[in-house]
Specification:
Distance between the termini: 103 Å
Strand content: under 5%
Number of helices: 23
Order of helices and strands: HHHHHHHHHHHHHHHHHHEEHHHHH
Shape: elongated
Number of strands: 2
Radius of gyration: 37 Å
Helix content: over 70%
Oligomer: single chain
Largest sheet: 2 strands, antiparallel
């Protein structure tokens, strides 16, 4: 007991000495400012002219201000802040370097107290109630001392407050797990009171970093007792924590707080149903709905009031969407309910995108909310459809979204909208690989619909029926839809090229035209190949017709590119004609019969030769 009293006395003496040291430093800085200003005034020459006399005070004031800023270290602070924004590692190192004896002493103090309490427990100097009371008293004392110390030395005071909060948390955990003196709701209430106290201190200091660290501490606290409580208690605790975060953000505009609390809610949302048997009670549904609604409308309020968007707002928007999807999946009992709620959520996020764009005209956040609405709609569609039906629906949804983005790229950020449009259309393109593979497997080795097939991968000759057209149509329709959608998007972008006045917008839309025209051309080539094999009576005739069509289109592009000196047409011609030549010499040269080979090479060779007579270069 005497050791503990001596420790408290030493702590009080150290705090008083630190107060005196801070006052001496403050007086020294004031003396430096005064001496610097007087020295500058003495060095300035006396002016004889009236105009010169009028300029002397301003010169003195300017130089004195510069000297004062140099003496007080403000220039160094500004440069230091600029460097710390660029490198977070340097910021952490600088924080550790600032008042490092204080931080090291705090760690040693916590270790010493732990050893002292352990020694006292072993020798039974202090009973269970005294031990818990001692721990809480020690934590409370550090909180109060830290709050007072922060008025003079912010870093030192904040370190003391966090040590005190940690002492309170450890004591409460010991009271719950070792002595069973507290219930979990009581402990969480005390922790919540500690968090509120530290949050108010951060508000008084106008210190966003302290508030963020406090909320992170508050979000981490329930994880230590999560197995000893129930889901309702944790939800109630997180709800109060969320209200505090939204209140602080709305009051002082600290943007980093909401993502921290939302991350904690997401983490507990994923963990709690695994630990506990989740029951779909009105209480749980109410809290989940409040979490989503409060973060959704709170984030919209922050964006609209500040008229600027940062990474924090984007993170909250995405996190809210993830939270909504997860809890809809957890709470809904049937797929129809999931799709219905997700569709309603899609309309809600689309409304958010409209409000954000209407009030701020910030494209990035508008795209984020629109993307979330589209993602919810896509997930809802996946719960209702599957296979080729799902692919057709995705072509419609993502193709329409890409066309809208291509249409507005003329008036907004062309590069961002064009990249987003291309990325959206990538999903149906990737999903189409499955029907393409099925069609290739169905027509292998290329025999027509309903004909007799002789497989080439076996030495034994037997007869087999080829695929029917009705079997191939479900796989062909998505490919035709992708081709048509890509052509439509390319047409929209081509209209932007004609109407654009800025060179940058014209260039981006030109690239967009070429990308989607290439996609449409690739799927058109696939459709020609598949349809020729499905409708023509022999495989050789199907190959001949397909290669002839490729050659005709390639020659057409070549002629137009040569006449107009258009690089895109020339590139398309080179690709088509190269495909024809490679197919002829690498495949058909060895597989075709001699009669079919003569006809094919004669016709396609004649078409190639005709380019010399049809293509005339544009004269300068």
């Amino acid at each position: 007991m005497f050791g503990f009293l001596a420790l408290m006395v030493a702590l009080i003496i150290a705090v008083r000495l630190s107060h005196l040291y801070a006052r001496v430093e403050k007086l020294e800085r004031a003396l430096k400012k005064t001496s610097a200003a007087s020295a500058v005034e003495r060095k300035l020459p006396s002016a004889s002219a009236a105009g010169t006399e009028r300029t002397v005070p301003s010169q003195v004031s300017t130089v004195a201000t510069e000297a004062e800023s140099l003496s007080s270290g403000r220039v160094g602070v500004r440069s230091f802040k600029a460097q710390t924004r660029e490198n977070k590692v340097d910021e952490i190192v600088a924080w550790l370097a600032r008042d490092w004896p204080m931080k090291a002493g705090a760690v040693l103090l916590v270790i010493a107290v732990g050893w002292f309490v352990t020694y006292a427990f072993i020798n039974d100097w202090i009973g269970p109630v005294g031990r818990i009371a001692l721990g809480l008293l020690f934590g409370l004392l550090l909180l109060l001392v830290g709050a007072r110390r922060a008025a003079l030395a912010r870093t030192q005071g904040n370190v003391l407050m966090f040590v005190g909060a940690a002492a309170v948390l450890v004591t409460l955990l010991a009271g719950i797990t070792v002595y069973e003196m507290f219930s979990v709701p009581t402990a969480l209430t005390v922790i919540l009171a500690t968090v509120i106290f530290m949050a108010l201190q951060s508000l008084e200091q106008k210190n966003e970093a302290l508030a963020a660290a406090t909320l992170a501490f508050g979000g981490l606290a329930p994880s230590f007792v999560i197995s000893l409580t129930n889901i309702d208690t944790v939800f109630l605790y997180l709800f109060v924590l969320m209200l505090g975060s939204l209140w602080l953000t709305g009051k002082v505009g600290w943007r980093s707080l909401n993502p921290i609390v939302l991350a904690a809610i997401l983490a507990y949302s994923f963990v709690l149903p695994v630990i506990f048997h989740f029951e779909k009670t009105i209480f749980n549904i109410l809290f989940v709905s409040l979490f989503v609604a409060m973060f959704f409308f709170g984030n919209l309020s922050v964006i609209v009031r500040s008229v600027r968007v940062g990474l924090a707002e984007v993170a909250v928007a995405v996190g809210t969407g993830v939270l909504f999807v997860y809890w809809v999946w957890m709470l809904a009992t049937e797929n129809s309910q999931v799709s219905l709620w997700l569709t309603l959520g899609a309309f809600l996020f689309a409304f958010g995108a409209y409000v954000v764009f209407l009030r701020t005209c910030v494209l990035a956040t508008t795209l984020v909310y629109s993307g979330l609405a589209l993602a919810l709609l896509a997930i809802a569609t996946a719960f209702e459809l599957s296979g080729n039906d799902l692919l057709l629906a995705y072509v419609l949804e993502f193709g329409l979204a890409a066309a809208v983005l291509a249409g507005i790229s003329r008036s907004l950020s062309a590069r961002a909208t064009a990249a987003t449009a291309t990325g959206l259309f990538l999903l149906p393109v990737l999903m189409s690989f499955s029907p393409i593979e099925r069609i290739f497997n169905g027509i292998r080795p290329g025999y027509p619909v309903g004909a007799i097939r002789v497989p080439e991968d076996t030495a034994e000759i037997f007869l087999a029926k080829g695929p029917t057209l009705s079997q191939m149509i479900p796989d062909l329709l998505p490919l035709a839809a992708i081709c048509a959608a890509a052509l439509a998007i390319a047409a929209v972008a081509a209209g932007n090229v004609s109407a654009a006045t800025e060179a940058r917008v014209k260039f981006v839309n030109t690239v967009l035209v070429r990308i989607f025209a290439a996609v449409a051309g690739a799927y058109a080539m696939l459709l020609v190949w598949f349809l020729s094999h499905l409708f023509l009576p022999t495989a050789a005739m199907a190959v001949f017709v397909a290669l002839t069509i490729y050659t005709l289109f390639g020659i057409g592009f070549y002629i137009e590119g040569t006449r107009s000196d258009h690089s895109a047409y020339k590139a398309a011609a080179a690709v088509l004609l190269a495909i024809v030549l490679f197919r002829l010499f690498l495949v058909e040269f060895w597989q075709m019969s001699i009669v079919v080979k003569i006809i094919t090479f004669f016709v396609i060779g004649g078409l190639f030769v005709s380019t010399a007579f049809l293509a005339t270069r544009k004269k300068d």
